[in-house]
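Minutes, project check-in

Agenda point 3 was the complex the collaborators sent over. CS summarized: two entities, 227 residues total, and the question is how they sit relative to each other. Sequences were read into the notes so everyone works from the same version.
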Amino acid sequence: GQQLNQSPQSMFIQEGEDVSMNCTSSSIFNTWLWYKQDPGEGPVLLIALYKAGELTSNGRLTAQFGITRKDSFLNISASIPSDVGIYFCAGVRRNQGGKLIFGQGTELSVKP
Amino acid sequence: DARVTQTPRHKVTEMGQEVTMRCQPILGHNTVFWYRQTMMQGLELLAYFRNRAPLDDSGMPKDRFSAEMPDATLATLKIQPSEPRDSAVYFCASGLEGQGNEKLFFGSGTQLSVL
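CS then shared the predicted structure for the full assembly.
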């Protein structure tokens, strides 16, 4: 099925560094969601975005809904070891019953 | 904390056997989704329900997979007969759709291994 283009696929960073990842699509989405998945667990919702241009923070995480409605990014500031995991973007189109389309994921590794 | 509950967490079975996975959505949610996660394909939507009615199961192999919601507190995903290529993690998610603030909450998944 159709997926969002998420990049990068993986990141290896030093503790304390900032992280940025993004998702792009050729079509418009009305909702963007960012999830984090730890090993052996389901994705956990981090941030939800509902309006073009919206910028939302959750602690050290900040996400934005792109103006064109075709992209979104997630920033993590001052990374810590527990930020390790796989981050997924997901988009929802209007009149799709809340159906999420997922990006391929960004695997984040943080070196203490 | 309200959460989506999935059982079993792990299932190992032999090819040809029937597998049933269960999900209890968050109380009050009106949508339930089944996703499958593999290394190769990522998260794929198999089926989803709104108010217990199936809306879309186009992602599901119809000949062997079936999804039902016998009541508002239980969703099931069955595979009969199971095949090794069905080995994956199966996630259930629930949400409250129709208020302009769609978001899904996921269970911890059922890790299925078909030998």
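Noted in discussion: Residues 15 and 84 of chain B are 6 Å apart (CA to CA).
Follow-up: revisit at the next meeting once the mutant set is ready.
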